[in-house]
Design a protein that fits this description.
- About 40% of the residues lie in helices and about 20% in strands.
- By secondary structure, the chain is α/β, with parallel strands linked by helices.
- Helix 14 links the parallel strand 15 and strand 16.
- Helix 13 runs parallel beside helix 16, helix 16 packs across helix 18 and helix 17 crosses helix 19.
- The longest helix is centred in the first third of the chain and has 49 residues.
Length: about 675
């Protein structure tokens, strides 16, 4: 439909001014008649001639005036068009379908498609710029699109341009309303800017700390005259590795190093899986124990000091997870690498003695002691809680154990304390009761877990400032931050072993009761699978202490006997297990089982006795979640598998909880195993 064009504004008044003057002359002519009729007649003749001439000129010249205006606008537009065409910024006008109607020279130069391709879609010029990137909002909004083409990085500012809104600013002509619009595209070459941004990012400082895990233990296995050679060889390995990336190394203590590298070197180190971890183990001059080290890196901080603090947190986390691994803290993100070898047991008990004395001081300074483990308490968690309960009672403090759900493995142990006149009736508290009783004068001891979300009652962690953590699991990103005392030793076989050691230094001549010794001894048996897994010298020393306190092997064995239903369920899980990349994967039935997760863990242990099985994974459906129990002997680090699924644990004993059905969880487990195989972790 053609639009009608009309003059408007001052130009319209200027063109109509002679006609307006004709009206003034007519009024003047009428005023002349009272003065002189003859003069009025003469003036009327001249006014009439004037009106005829003005009218003829207005009618005849109107089209010519419009033409001259259009010609002027065209000449003015040609100047603007020439300037826009030679503009250094690529610019194009598209129709509603994204076809190029007009573009300047810089646009064609950027696309390298030539000027003969007008009326083609912008995708033809830039394949990465698809039509779905065109604006859908009002013309006032600008959409910013970034894409790469011909090895150049572009930022495109795209907006709708409605013709009606353009004409609103026009002072010459008036155009009828219309919904038609064009799309304006401005391209800004950001290649150089992005290059310098990448260079700045790659050159940022990454602070690192390298600690030798077993410095003293390794030196003890070498002749004294050769110890300096061992240290020199390890030092050379570290310096050579960091220097290959252009970094610097500074020895700050006999077994500690500070390193500084550029951020661009971290991806390279990740790709070669931090080969220094394995390289340093090859140093052998007769030492019976291979040297291992841990590395912690910090980056993406606002300052160098913050990067160093990140590195310090990372190295602490690496050591708390057992050493022989790398931890990278990148802002709030934490990544783990290595940790595939079994942790070396520390032969010294100095740390246990120090922690025991510190725990005693905290308990003595408070009125009450509360102990809680993880949800679905197992024998290790329950036994460790009973051990801390006894420590508090030795100091004359009121002590309570927070326990909600009693599993089949814990029920025989708990029944020993029920209706027993030696123990208070309120010895065990539910979460609700504990929340009511806890106050700021209470010591809260968390055993067998260091993750707040896994505890029996996470809310208790916010009710008292005095929190003590005793655990043997490797730390993850989630941890209890406000603990006044944290004793986490991944080398320990169980939390019960750690508590048994603490009790030996807690009070001179401390004697625990036989039933309490049974619980601690039972926790060690369960977590070591009858002393066959993660068992060291100190494990047997702790067991010997408990035997001297009256622990009876026969009583403990009777506590952990299974009923027929559980035994059949375990056998059913083993019978239907499938072998997948060396993993025995099974689903444990949960019908008529009170604690199916425990049966699943037992089935995972039994699957390791089958030839050709490197590791086992058993899935159990319980309370609308799928519980994953992963076990291995020494070939596979199942902790890596559990952590990828949001869980954790040890190198040969780990687990996770998935908020989905068993079948979906099975696919997640297989997908995770495949991914770890592709990454070379398994």
């Amino acid at each position: 439909m053609k639009r009608k064009v009309h003059l408007k504004g001052r130009l319209k008044r200027y063109v109509q001014w002679p006609i307006l003057m004709s009206i003034l002359l007519l009024v003047m002519n009428l005023c002349m008649y009272p003065i002189s009729v003859k003069a009025g007649v003469v003036m009327s003749v001249f006014v009439l001639v004037y009106i005829v001439i003005v009218t003829v000129l207005y009618v005849q010249n109107r089209a010519q005036i419009y033409g001259e205006l259009v010609s002027f606008a065209t000449q003015y537009g040609q100047i603007q068009r020439k300037l826009l065409k030679e503009l250094a910024i690529p610019y194009a006008l598209l129709d509603e379908d994204g076809k190029v109607l007009w573009a300047n020279s810089a646009f064609f130069a950027a696309s390298e498609k030539g000027k003969k391709n007008l009326r083609k879609s912008i995708t033809y010029f830039f394949p990465e710029f698809t039509t779905d990137l065109l604006p859908e909002d009002d013309f006032e909004d600008t959409r910013t699109v970034r894409f790469s083409a011909e090895e150049r990085d572009y930022r495109a500012d795209v907006r709708r341009v409605y013709l009606d809104h353009i004409m609103e600013d026009n002072t010459f002509v008036d155009v009828e309303e219309d919904d038609s619009y064009l799309i304006a595209v401005y391209l800004f070459d950001e290649t150089e800017m992005n290059k310098y941004i990448r260079m700045i990012k790659e050159q940022r400082l990454v602070a690192g700390l390298i600690y030798l895990d077993n410095y003293d233990e390794a030196l003890d296995t070498v002749e004294e005259v050769r110890r300096s050679l061992l240290v020199a060889l390890v030092d050379r390995k570290i310096n050579k590795y960091i220097s290959s990336f252009g970094g610097i190394v500074k020895n700050i203590e006999k077994d500690k190093y500070f390193v500084a590298i550029q951020e661009k070197d971290l991806p390279v180190m990740r790709e070669n899986k931090f080969e220094l971890l394995q390289d340093v183990k090859t140093v052998n001059i007769g030492n019976e124990m291979a040297v291992t080290l841990s590395m912690g890196f910090g980056c993406a901080g606002k300052t160098f000091a913050e990067n160093y603090e990140f590195a310090r947190i990372a190295i602490d986390l690496a050591l708390a997870r057992g050493g022989d691994q790398v931890v990278i803290r990148e802002g709030e993100k934490i990544s783990y690498f290595g940790g595939k070898t079994q942790q070396v047991e520390k032969t010294t008990r100095v740390k246990a003695r120090v922690k025991a004395h510190a725990l005693r001081e905290f308990i003595e300074s408070r009125d009450k002691v509360m102990v809680m483990g993880h949800r679905q308490t197992d024998a290790d968690s329950f036994g460790a809680a009973i051990g801390i309960y006894r420590a508090a009672k030795v100091l004359g403090k009121r002590a309570y154990v927070v326990l909600n759900e009693v599993t089949t493995s814990v029920r025989p142990m708990k029944s020993c304390f029920e209706d027993n006149p030696v123990y208070e009736p309120d010895m065990f508290l539910s979460s609700e009761q504990a929340i009511e009783m806890i106050d700021r004068n209470t010591v809260l001891v968390v055993v067998d877990t260091n993750r707040p979300s896994y505890t029996e009652c996470p809310e208790l962690l916010t009710r008292t400032p005095t929190i003590v953590v005793l655990d043997h699991h490797r730390q993850t990103n989630e941890q209890i931050e406000n603990a006044v005392l944290s004793y986490i030793e991944p080398y320990a076989s169980s939390a019960c072993e750690m508590v048994a050691e603490i009790l030996q230094y807690f009070d001179e001549g401390l004697k625990i009761k036989a039933v309490e010794a049974d619980c601690l001894y039972g926790g060690i048996i369960i977590d070591t699978n009858n002393f066959t897994s993660k068992t060291g010298v100190r494990t047997f020393e702790a067991a010997a202490f408990l035997r001297r306190c009256g622990a009876d092997v026969t009583r403990v064995r009777k506590m952990f006997r299974n009923d027929m239903t559980e035994y059949k369920a375990r056998a059913e899980a083993v019978r239907h297990a499938e072998l997948y990349h060396g993993f025995a994967i099974a689903i444990c039935p949960n019908e008529n089982l009170e604690s199916p997760t425990i049966v699943g863990a037992q089935a995972a242990n039994e699957l390791l006795d089958i030839n050709g099985v490197k590791a086992s994974v058993v899935l159990t459906d319980y309370q609308h979640k799928t519980y994953v129990s992963a076990r291995s002997i020494d070939e596979v680090n199942v902790q890596l598998l559990a952590e990828r699924m949001g869980g954790g644990g040890h190198l040969n004993m780990a687990g996770a909880q998935l908020d989905c059905g068993v079948e979906e969880a099975l696919e997640i487990v297989k997908h995770t195993i495949d991914k770890l195989h592709e990454e070379g972790e398994f």
